[in-house]
Amino acid sequence: MERLDGYQVSGTEIVFKGAWCCVNEKKAVLLNNTGHIILLDKELFNSVVNKRMDEDLAFKLLQRGFAYVKGLPADDYEDDIDISPQFFMVDFTNRCNMDCSYCLRERDRQNSKPRIIDYKMLDTIADCLSNYCQSNGIDRIVIQPWGGEPLLEKDKILYFQDLLIERKVNAEFSIESNGLLLNDSTIEEFAKRNIFVSISIDGYQEIQDYQRRLVGGKKSHPLVSDAINRLKKTEKEHTAVLATITKYSADKVEDILEYFAVELGIKRVKLNFVHKSSFVDNESLCLNPEEISDCIERLFYKELELLKRGYQIYEYNICTKLRNLVLNEKADICVCRGCNGGKKMLTIDCKGDVYPCDVTDYPEEKIGNISDKRDFIQMVQDSLDQTPYFMKKHDDKCDTCPWYYYCRGGCTVHVKCAGKPAGSIDDIECATNTVLYPLLVKLILEEPDIANALLEQNALELI
Questions:
Q1: What are the tens digits of pLDDT across the range 300-311?
Q2: Cα(317)–Cα(335) distance, rounded to whole angstroms?
Q3: Whole-structure pTM value
């Protein structure tokens, strides 16, 4: 991406603010500092470069946030995120029936020191959420039961949903599970209750059984793949899987995506890179930034290949960041405008302690307790200048990065687990964005039909 300097449009009071640009022989994409793009044909782009744009184009740039009227605020940067948590993780247990090689939290592997939420605490949390929603006019929240393996506490999850229904809280339940406890009756009950389940599986048998074994060391792939096939019978095309990419599996990422699309027939996938853990020695499985960049590029082109072969498969991070570019959506609380932990999401643990993200294993990040005489918004406001979690992440290279508006320094949890000082940037997100966003811009320019397919709507057009 190259930078165009700003200037006042001749004969008008309109000032072009400048923009990042990417050009091919027919079209150009302009990107501004507030995450908006505009797609121009080459003739219109040249008029911008040569400072000879007509009034019509100048007005369209004004509408899209690429220009402002002289003497009025320029609205250059959209930095503040409103504090309004509406995504809540509830930590039901630290027990798990798997023993993954890269585990990212303090689990109870031997059931010797289990942390399990009790029914009384669920009642209290339900009351707290009900009061919060009523007091702040919030008409919908998302609940993610968390673990360990959350389905070890399935009955409590259902109990909690009933509590919220009784209190007239409109709560969407979404569970990430290893799938081992997903029998037909559970799948059917979840479907009736509109509880969405996604299953973690790192790839085909060799990869899954290397990275994600059962407690005791037995292989997990046959059980997990069976759970996915069971779920597909009910959820059909909405079945989603999550995969963790490690140094072991990174060079096989094309085969993994092929397996999901062709063998499992999955349309919704999300691939995340493993990060360092404070609780297991997984550093040998973590990729360096160069390896992440290479893996992202190969994953991107494999996604396009599968789409062109007729497989409807949508990798979450690719699709979400494309929507960032084209639609300027804030669809994800982690990757659309940087970390929104605390501001858009909170985690509540088994004792009612409140955290800005899934950092319940780190007591220093606690921002309150549901027994406090403060609502969630006040807890976050009181913690902004006190809790390391909320420190702004920035590096000198961010000043000249076109993608910083989306990234804002990346994931706070990644930074913490890597042992870097608060305020450092997340190397994983940086390496991902500096490769993926340029590829997406190139896709918009050169293959708009594929871009529209990933967007699942016809959103691209020339002005």
A1: 999 999 999 999
A2: 8
A3: 0.94
